[in-house]
Design brief:
Layout: H1 2-29, H2 32-58, H3 73-101, H4 109-136, H5 140-169, H6 174-201, H7 208-221, E1 227-236, E2 239-248, H8 254-272, E3 276-283
Parallel strand pairs: 2-3
Antiparallel strand pairs: 1-2
Helix pairs in contact: 1-2, 1-4, 2-3, 2-5, 2-6, 3-5, 3-6, 4-5, 5-6, 7-8
């Protein structure tokens, strides 16, 4: 978890550095597209702070008021980031409209582009780090932050193309026009982040691949039981929650049933890093079907 927090802190420093570079690029050129790019970078800084707070909250252990832990805090951060991406896109559209109504030539466009593209390279590298490490550590906040930076990279590339075309052709209206097109793409990216995060807040089940692994582990580790049924799963950040009913023969002792449950739990935790497992042990008259199987 400490690595996750360090990455979140790193995002704040990277965000400030990129914001400073993009602001300088706008100051040199007066480009509405570069201004829009800088506006999105202010959101990067804000969402980096939000991700850090969410990760720190999610890392807190369960307590009396939150017996299942604080894992969902990361989903709230991811939703916030998605919303702020949408807000940034709307701000870009506003600035693009103003530039469209009054197009003007740019000052020092090549110098501004070089500075802006340097900031874009920094963002691209850091986005890759956040997404890859976030997925490895099952951190929705880091992944969302990385995806947000990807949209920033796309914005910068679109902006650079618009500025280059405007400089090459003298059609200064291309500057705000392409900025507006990129803003539409950012709107779509922001919506996808919000949609994916809301599914986590709604206790969405684990993926089909993970569910198949859970079924296989239960089936292979439940020796001594006769059946497993009513399997339910959900995920919250890095945490996976599993509960199901395990049917054992009527002459099974409490100790023996407990040993079977421990074996299944240990295998699940080793394979999937499951956080919470609940197994309801039932006598054989509760059986729904013979055999060691998992029924939904």
């Amino acid at each position: 978890m400490m690595t996750t927090i360090k990455l979140a802190i790193g995002s704040i420093f990277v965000g400030f550095a990129v914001l400073a570079l993009k602001s300088l690029a706008y100051w040199l050129t007066g480009s509405v597209a570069l201004l829009s790019d800088a506006l999105e970078s202010t959101v990067n800084v804000a969402t980096a702070f939000a991700a850090l707070i969410a990760i720190r909250v999610a890392a807190k252990p369960a307590d009396a008021d939150h017996p299942w832990g604080h894992h969902k805090a990361e989903f709230f951060s991811a939703v916030l980031e998605g919303v702020m991406i949408i807000v940034a896109a709307l701000l870009i559209l506003h600035e693009a409209y103003a530039g469209f109504m009054a197009p003007a030539p740019l000052d020092a466009p090549l110098e501004g582009l070089l500075i802006n593209m340097g900031a874009t390279v920094i963002n691209g590298v850091w986005a890759w780090v956040l997404i890859s490490r976030g997925r490895a550590q099952k951190s929705p906040a880091l992944v969302a932050d990385g995806k947000h930076l990807v949209t920033d990279v796309l914005t910068s590339v679109g902006v650079a193309a618009g500025v280059l075309l405007a400089v090459g052709t003298g059609w200064w209206i291309l500057d705000p026009l392409l900025a507006a097109l990129v803003a539409v793409n950012i709107l779509w990216s922001g919506w996808k982040i919000v949609r994916d995060s809301l599914s986590g807040l709604m206790d969405e089940a684990v993926s089909d691949a993970t569910l198949a692994s859970i079924r296989e582990i239960i089936a292979t580790q439940a020796d001594g039981a006769t059946e497993a049924h009513d399997l339910r799963t959900r995920h919250a950040g890095a945490a996976i929650f599993i509960d199901f009913h395990l049917v054992v023969p009527g002459d099974t002792t409490v100790f023996e049933a407990h040993e079977i449950c421990d074996r299944i739990e240990n295998a699940l935790k080793e394979k999937l890093e499951v956080t919470h497992i609940t197994i309801h042990v039932e006598p054989e008259h509760k059986s729904k079907q013979t055999g060691i199987i998992v029924l939904d």
